[in-house]
Amino acid sequence: MLSYRHGFHAGNFADVLKHGVLTLLGESLLGKEKGFFYLDTHAGAGLYDLASPFARKNREYQSGVARIWVANDVPEELRTYRDIVRALNPDGALRYSPGSSWIIHYLLRPQDRMVLCELHPTEVEALRSRFAGQRRVTVRHDDGYQAMKALLPPAERRGLVLCDPAFELRDERERLLEAAQLAYRRWPTGIFAYWHPIQERRATDWLYRRFRQSGIERLLAVELTMFPETAERRMIGTGLVLVNPPWRLADRLTRLLPWLCDTLRQGPEATWRLEWLAGADD
Ligand code: SAM
Questions:
Q1: Alpha-carbon distance 13 to 64, whole Å?
Q2: Which of 15, 40, 112, 164 is catalytic?
Q3: What is the pLDDT at residue 1?
């Protein structure tokens, strides 16, 4: 199918939550000298031009990254993300929004490496040209779920997987859960972030219930919801289920989420949620 193009949504509130949390996860891996491995199963284009016809169609970035760009009270937990956006836009005007791979690439040290999977030919080409000549980066024109089977556990034994599907398929939640269980069996100490859109509470509660039953021992759910539920099942919010969240990440998110919710709110209904689905920091 592959009709989804992330350029339409680049830098929206869901991207800000995803990329803010991703930055914190990436930073948590920098504490040790030993190299880490990063797998981006659904990598997109890596970088998005907010002046492109895609981004200008609905201008979703205006209620997302553009609000972070102008905020003068960005909390400590979001400063690296803000710095990455600033480094991409050195002229002082917001033109580009980083994709997930761009964010981790910013943090990458010589001993670290990343693998980026993408199925859409245009997005694969974009990734190849952005990361051309980068020894630490491998771009695969490949199914991200297959790559999880093929590449995990990595030789490094420490690292992070972002699984960020487009949710074009009706059974994407089932596919994601299946992949999560298999990946956890192969690599029980890896950090995983599973992104999902919130369209109706029922589907999200189902996802959480299934994660709770999965046998994964440490699971943290992070959410930002902007609008009340509608009959059309449009995206009203966004969430990430984190497997093996780093120590004290939940505390950092407790500080970040209220600020993010207030800064990105598009109406009075905006809310945030942080919930351990399994395990907890003690
Ligand atoms: N992770 C990106 C970011 O944060 O910048 C955004 C990714 S976008 C939400 C999802 C991407 O997955 C799309 O570019 C789509 O072409 C790609 N895709 C869809 N099915 C895929 C699959 N089975 N394996 C890999 N990529 C896939």
A1: 4
A2: 164
A3: 60
What is the maximum alpha-carbon separation in the chain?
A: 50
Give the distance (Å) from ligand 1 centre to CA of residue 278: 27
Q: By C-alpha distance, which of 132, 92, 87 is closest to 107?
A: 87
Q: Distance from the CA of 58 to the center of ligand 1, in angstroms?
A: 20
Structure tokens at 45: 């284009």
Ligand 1 center–CA 167 separation, angstroms: 9
Q: How far apart are CA 112 and CA 273, in angstroms?
A: 32
Quote the mean pLDDT of the chain. Answer: 96
User: What confidence tens digit (pLDDT) does each residue in 190-223 have?
Assistant: 999 999 999 999 999 999 999 999 999 999 999 9
Question: Rounded distance, CA 180 to CA 198, Å?
Answer: 19
- Indicate whether 233 pLDDT > 80: no
pTM, whole model, 2 decimals? 0.97
Residue of the CA atom closest to atom 17 of ligand 1: 42
User: Is 262 annotated as catalytic?
Assistant: no
Average pLDDT estimate for 3-15: 90
b/e string for 27-39 if b means 16 or more Cβ within 10 A? bbbeeeeebbbbb
Digit-coded pLDDT (tens) for 89-142:
999 999 999 999 999 999 999 999 999 999 999 999 999 999 999 999 999 999
Q: Are 159 and 36 in contact (CB under 8 A)?
A: yes
The Cα angle at residue 266 between residues 265 and 270, in degrees rounded to 5: 50
Atom of ligand 1 nearest to the CA of 22: 4
The answer to whether the beta carbons of residues 257 and 274 sit under 8 Å apart is yes
